[in-house]
């Protein structure tokens, strides 16, 4: 993705911050963050779970690539177990549950969302 002036967009790395203070086992760094007006391309985030589960509904597809650890993803009663190097897609319009019984660090990519519809039904749980 490049800026309208043709220059390179640069996003410097940083330590993975807590997603929320009251969710101590979930971290998230929005590398290319959500744009409220919507997007035709994609968004990218690095995130992790440690002995925790996360559930949410996305109006857009969500792709996850596991960088470290093991991640369990459940959609409509079907669960897949991903290890480092594996990836999976949660289709648009589905509720996804992500569990890391021990630890998982992922690269998450959100597909296009031209109308800027918001994600919802957030649920965090320590396991």
TrEMBL record:
Span of domain Cupin type-2: 53-94
InterPro entries: Cupin_2 (IPR013096)
One Pfam family matching this protein: Cupin_2
Entry protein name: Cupin type-2 domain-containing protein
Source species of the chain: Leucobacter soli
